[in-house]
């Protein structure tokens, strides 16, 4: 790929150098037949033989059982069981890292429902299930924020009423107006520093979460998907919390 860019650069430089030429000679342009990619296209048998050992190894790894659930884990509703579960995993993993590296506690966690790409049906949970749920290489970020700046977070939920999963947060609205906002069951202390766990995508303002820009983003180096895999493996039987965290009264 680098060679292609180099050749392109040389070609552009050559054209620039020849600007004063009175005429340009165009090479013959020949049309080529398009190759349709469909079921009739035959496999490259030699290539298939080369990748088969790697495919078998990958399939074996991806099909390993890492946990089990007796209920369907879905992303439906304002307090989806899969959303709550992954937000709790984010909180727990980030809190462990923060205790070790910052000597602080994480106060809450927030992830986006759009980052959860699919659901997990009841039964065995395989490694590939987590890759399907979280195909992105997002990192866990700790955002240090003043209590006064957290108002932007609560206003965001009141305005959008989107079911982005949270942990250790309670947000209540009535007809789009914020009526209650709690962290760990307590009102916000304006002068206090709070540590919020989220993804790098959201910390950088993804999903229009601009309120995070008022805080200090701290990198953990932990991939969200790796964290989820670790916690699924720790739990032989997944029992997600179904408590109410987002209470949008009168939501249309």
From TrEMBL:
<dbReference type="InterPro" id="IPR006179">
    <property type="entry name" value="5_nucleotidase/apyrase"/>
</dbReference>
<feature type="signal peptide">
    <location>
        <begin position="1"/>
        <end position="21"/>
    </location>
</feature>
<feature type="domain" description="5'-Nucleotidase C-terminal">
    <location>
        <begin position="68"/>
        <end position="213"/>
    </location>
</feature>
<dbReference type="InterPro" id="IPR036907">
    <property type="entry name" value="5'-Nucleotdase_C_sf"/>
</dbReference>
<protein>
    <submittedName>
        <fullName>5'-nucleotidase C-terminal domain-containing protein</fullName>
    </submittedName>
</protein>
<dbReference type="Pfam" id="PF02872">
    <property type="entry name" value="5_nucleotid_C"/>
</dbReference>
<keyword id="KW-0732">Signal</keyword>
<dbReference type="InterPro" id="IPR008334">
    <property type="entry name" value="5'-Nucleotdase_C"/>
</dbReference>
């Amino acid at each position: 790929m680098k060679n292609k860019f180099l050749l392109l650069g040389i070609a552009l430089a050559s054209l620039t150098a020849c600007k004063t030429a009175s005429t340009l000679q165009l090479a013959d342009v020949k049309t080529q037949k398009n190759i349709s990619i469909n079921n009739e296209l035959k496999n490259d048998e030699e290539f298939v033989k080369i990748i088969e050992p790697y495919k078998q190894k990958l399939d074996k790894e991806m099909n390993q059982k890492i946990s089990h659930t007796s209920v369907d884990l879905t992303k439906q509703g304002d307090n989806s069981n899969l959303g709550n579960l992954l937000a709790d995993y984010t909180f727990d993993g980030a809190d462990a890292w923060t205790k070790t590296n910052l000597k602080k506690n994480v106060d809450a966690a927030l992830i986006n429902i759009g980052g959860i790409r699919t659901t997990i049906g009841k039964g065995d949970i395989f490694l590939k299930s987590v890759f399907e749920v979280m195909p992105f290489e997002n990192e866990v970020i700790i955002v240090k924020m003043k209590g006064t700046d957290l108002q932007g977070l609560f206003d965001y939920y009141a305005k959008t009423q989107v079911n982005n999963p949270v942990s250790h947060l309670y947000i209540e609205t009535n007809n789009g107006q914020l009526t209650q906002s709690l962290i760990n069951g307590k009102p916000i202390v304006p002068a206090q520093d709070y540590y919020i766990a989220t993804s790098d995508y959201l910390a950088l303002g993804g999903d229009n979460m601009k309120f995070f820009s008022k805080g200090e983003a701290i990198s953990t180096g932990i991939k969200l998907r790796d964290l989820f895999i670790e916690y699924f493996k720790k739990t032989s039987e997944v029992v997600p919390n179904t408590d109410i965290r987002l209470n949008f009264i009168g939501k249309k």
